Amino acid sequence: MNAAGACSLCLLPIGRLGQQREVNGQTRQFCCYGCCLAYQVHHGESDEPGAAALLIRLGVGAFLAMNIMLFSLLMYSGTFVAADGRMLSLVHWLLWILATPLIVILGGPFIAGAWQDARRFRLGTDTLVSIGALSAYGYSGYQVVQGSGIVYFDTATMVLLLFTLGRYLEAQGRVRAVRSLAPMLAAERASVRVVAGGIDTMRSVATVQSGTVVRILPGERIGVDGVVIEGHSACEEAILTGQPETQFKSPGARVHAGSVNGYGQLLIRASAAGTDTRWIQISRLVRDALARKSLLGGTVDRVAAIFIPFVLLLAAATVWFWSARGPFAAALLTGLAVLVVACPCSLGLAAPLATALGIGQAARRGILIRSGGALERLARVRGVAFDKTGTLTQGKPQPAYLAVEGTTECEVLLRATTLAAGSEHCIARAIAELGQAHGLTVPPPATDIQARPGAGVTGEIDGEFCAMGSRGFMTALGWTVPEELSAITEAPGHTLVYIGWADRAYGLLALTDAALPEAGEVIKALHARGVATLLLSGDTAGPVDQIAGALGISRWQAGLTPEGKVQALNEWASKQRGPIAMVGDGLNDGPVLASASVGIAVGAATDLAKESSDITLPMGGLGSLPWLMQLADRVRKSILANLAWALGYNAIALLLAVSGLLQPAVAAGLMFGSSVLVVMRSLRSSETRPDVPGAAIAAHIYST
Length: 704
Fold this sequence. Notes:
Structural class: alpha+beta
Oligomer: single chain
Helix content: 40-55%
Radius of gyration: 31 Å
């Protein structure tokens, strides 16, 4: 630990230029920005070292490029006349001296990448950049040695600088996403207190095996998945479930790595190895998602694999053609112009800049987008399917009535409250709150509690197997439902939950869940965009029909298992002409979110829903969905327009270069102008305020 007020890197006192940054999920203090970058490079995780190193390279490269461009401008403006030949020669040597470290600093990663691609017999954007930059640099160096007045070090500089800027924007976007998920991504660094032979020892979570006993003190973050074997407490599982309410834990209750222990000490027996917890699985999935290349990024590489051989052949043919009709030096200059214009710097900025600006806009509204590819796919979505409970409804079911047969209401409620403690579903939370309202704050201990996604929950209470769930769940267990309970019909908008033990149902609890105030506006906004909607729910037909009718959703399916939701979504997707998005929040939504083209989890989503989604909306953020879709549409249009400009410029410039009408100096100028236009278009697009129904609701939510 550092002393208060000391830099985390050099340990010097922090003055007025001090910096405070979050690195690896922890807040660090630095005396200057240089120490901050150095710490990120040497101690950062994931993309932080790479992004910090790119920024350092970019800073040094920009300084060198600034001087190169300044002297190049003097030459292009005609400042030097024939009498200044000696001075001009010195300027050429100075440019060569400045360009050489720039080629190493900025061009090194591209050259290394091109070499790796070549070893695998592939061609990518690294190859394209390397050829353009090295050709301009090599030709200019040759001209300096020959004493010629034609050099193009500025061209090599511009190519490398702009492509490095594009890569830095991509890396920085991933770093910001990782920082927003820092607690979730800190799983691998966790330590736990292992109990062995009556002695507590701190060990890395990676050393924990299934069956290991771990002690959790009040206020500590739980590092393993397991079952409580001793102690009572309440755990905050917001990092996994999105719910701020604490969950009561007693012997037999399951606990999840990543949750925070409350007031009591717990002994936990690990149910999985420390490297196989759901927390670590989420961390790995998120890191993999953030590292994925966007769709357009992959498209650029595929285009480059065809484009580069064509450019090399075209350049060689150009040199051959003009050398047969004039001096070889002039032919070589014409071939260089072909190579220079074939390296569109605007192509390196088109997708990264627009995507980074779009992800940044979403982040300011609390929306987490895992990758640029998710934003691209969302812009092409033609249908959106919704879960019901907790997604379109408030997710806080209210009890309507309780019916029992063969026992007392207190007994049914006691067993229901105990089983509810082992489930993350909002219906289970509502039942637990109902039990607390009736004074059941410390329900009897239950063992082997298992949530059955889309069906119910089971567990053993005092050695007796108990279950709670839908009518179909009772039937699947082979249990009987008394006629008194079977005769109770489902009223519109009511969800019926059966509670039973000893091979039969003893009680029935009816709950109601109202639609979210903004849900209707969201559905209207989607329909106005021509986007079809579908409601998929594991609930019974009555509540699903009532919610669908109230919100204007014409297609719905009820009583679906998680597998049934996947099948229903796939069948619906086959009828739509375009990608399909799925919005959900529950444990049973994980598979269907993963199978959708774009999975969207709402803020109150369970851990499985969030790990399976591409986009996570904040708490109460359903109203921002139309705004997000319009943002994705604007980003995609901006990227396509930028790419069209870059490729169109290349096509025209290549024709001019092959015909000998375009000199490398002019090509460099047009290349710079193209890049400036791409940046201006992207910035202007990011400042446009969307005007869609539901945006006002979202703005109100985030401003409060």
